[in-house]
Amino acid sequence: MAYQEYQAEAEAIVQQLNLTQMTVQGLDRAVSAIEAMQSAVEGQDILVPIGSGSFIHARLASREKVILNVGSGVSIEKPAAEAVENLKVRRTEVAEGSKKLNEVLAKIEEEMAKIQSVVEKYQAGSEGVVQ
Fold it and tell me: For the chain, which residues make up each domain, given as ranges?
């Protein structure tokens, strides 16, 4: 029974790792977009991604201000440089969490291997026994 529990836990951790990877990628894209915005000119026509590979046409009102999600559905206006720093800090935190999840996953896989080894030894030992 322990093997199935480890297996379920490992699958849940893999799902969390996938989510953290998507979060890291989103944070990287946000940093890149803000940095690219710095080379644009206020009033310049730009394309703004709205999801699923779709864009809308817009005009850049300010290169200096960014609306940043700070959690719990709350967004605040920040200077672009400060927004980039906040996003980089958040990325570091998410990456650190991902590293810890990978360490836990490695321990679980190690325990699963031990259980598998015991089962294989038991099966090998019982093959020679005639009932």
Answer: 2-38+77-127
